[in-house]
Amino acid sequence: MAVIDDFRGIITVFVEFKIDPEKSELVIAQLKEFYAKHAKGSTGLVSVNYHLSFDSSLIFNYAQWKTEDDFERFITDKSNLAFMKSIDCLESKFTKTKVVFTT
């Protein structure tokens, strides 16, 4: 479960998937499959949260990892990379962040 705080040192990765709105249900299904087969139980993974924009053109993944090394190990795994490339999106980008303030 996602908990936002500024003292555990957890990194947050925002992933933005630009998609064809008509394929939003397909892409969400692909992302859920990716989580079930590749991400769930990965060392250091704290949480994954998918969000769909109101116009269905973007999916955002708000993911938390215990360390940057855990995330890097996951994202460079050849099996994970192959599956990620099969996801039906037009474009994707990752942004690694750290919490600097929360209320």
The chain-level structural class is alpha+beta
Q: Globular, elongated, flat, extended or rod-shaped: what is the shape? A: globular
Helix content: 25-40%
Order of SSEs: EHEEHHE
Low-confidence runs: none
How many whole angstroms does the radius of gyration measure? 14 Å
In short:
The protein contains 3 helices and 4 strands, in the order βαββααβ. The protein has 103 residues and is an alpha+beta fold.
Describe it for me?
With 103 residues, this protein is of the alpha+beta class. The protein has one domain (11-97): Alpha-Beta Plaits (2-Layer Sandwich). It contains three helices and four strands, in the order E-H-E-E-H-H-E. It has helices at residues 24-39, 68-75, 78-86, and strands spanning 11-18, 45-52, 58-65, 91-98. It is globular, with a radius of gyration of 14 Å. The chain starts with 10 loop residues before the first strand and ends in a 5-residue tail after the last strand. The mean pLDDT is 92.
